Amino acid sequence: MNSVVRVTSVLLTLSLASCAGQEHLLTVKVYESQNQVVRLQAIPEATTSGGYTHPALLSEEQIARILQGLRVEKNTSPVPLVLQGGSGYSQTVRAFSEAEVRFFAPLLAKGLAQATPEELVTFFETAEISPTQRVVTSGAVLVRGEVFHILISNHLVKKDIWIDAELYEAPYRLRPLWPIEQGTEPGRLLFEPSAYMVESTTDELGLRELTTGLHLRVGVRFRNLPRASHSQPRTPSP
Prior knowledge:
3-stranded antiparallel β-sheet; 30% strand
């Protein structure tokens, strides 16, 4: 990388850090690679809503079971289905593939075990789907009482691959709770079996001022969850 671009990259990072003063800073790194990041993030507003039940000692198996049961409903029709008398959603996919479940479950378990009542665990993942495009998935998890809450800011959101990835990936890696597609209806996040699902809001979780735009979110009562049934993993489409 030439000196001009590197200086620009540093300035951008400093600018983002300044903006992060309003969104709060990422604190402890749990795991980081070129394509995946798991960190703890401090949420001062969490105390106003009672804080989180952290450290939380959920097993890898418990978290894997939750991730396996998450479903994303999206409307892929150019004409809203509600205008056709439908539910408004035309596609249901798994939120995480089996490979992602195996990868993230131990890291999220580690993060929740380290977190304080004012911290949640954020995750970020990116993958190339063509020579010119990649997809981004990011969000956060936390525990309150016996409910595991997950918020997904970006689910397989497509973005162009820039020549200088170090420069242009920084905003998404540093701000996993920031929706890339502002103002776009992301769909719904559900859990199967639905008897264990709890609806959650950003207000009750102390995240209203931190998160902007629309997010996928759901709570899951994790005690005594039945074993997952086998289903097809999600696959990013070009």
